[in-house]
């Protein structure tokens, strides 16, 4: 256990041995649990990028990775017409 001192404006320094998952500028969630203060790192996502971090998007990315790994792909193509023809035949 590391001992820290509360300084002016209630600031603390997180000891090096326990701050492996945080960097300057990161956010921490703090909650009081069973009489203890628990700090948890929070990753902030810009609202324009939030969809890419959704479960649906991540599930679709995982499916695409599986398809690529198993060879379930078509292409590459020299032009859009060849690509559309191949996709229609593959019923993808």
Summarize the SSE layout with pairings.
Layout: E1 27-33, E2 36-42, H1 55-69, H2 80-90
Antiparallel strand pairs: 1-2
Describe this structure in words.
With about 90 residues, the chain is an alpha+beta fold. The protein has two domains: about 10-40, no CATH class; about 45-90, no CATH class. It is about 30% helix and about 15% strand. The protein has helices at about 55-70, 80-90; strands at about 25-35, 35-40. A two-stranded antiparallel sheet has the order 1-2. The mean pLDDT is about 90.
Which strand order do you get reading across the main beta sheet? 1-2
Number of strands: 2
- The helix-strand sequence is EEHH
Total of domains: 2
- SSE-based structural type: alpha+beta
The pLDDT mean sits at 90
> Helical percent range?
25-40%
Provide a count of the helices: 2
In short:
The chain contains 2 helices and 2 strands. The chain has helices spanning 55-69, 80-90; strands at residues 27-33, 36-42.
Features:
28% helix, two-stranded antiparallel sheet, alpha+beta, 2 strands, 92 residues, 15% strand
């Amino acid at each position: 256990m590391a001992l820290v001192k509360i300084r002016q404006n209630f600031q603390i320094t997180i000891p090096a041995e326990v701050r492996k998952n945080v960097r300057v500028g990161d956010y921490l969630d703090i909650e009081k649990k069973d009489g203890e203060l628990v700090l948890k790192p929070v990753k902030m996502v810009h609202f324009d990028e939030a969809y890419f971090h959704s479960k649906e998007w991540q599930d679709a990315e995982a499916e695409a990775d599986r398809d690529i790994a198993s060879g379930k792909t078509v292409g590459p193509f020299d032009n859009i017409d060849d690509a559309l023809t191949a996709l229609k035949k593959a019923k993808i």
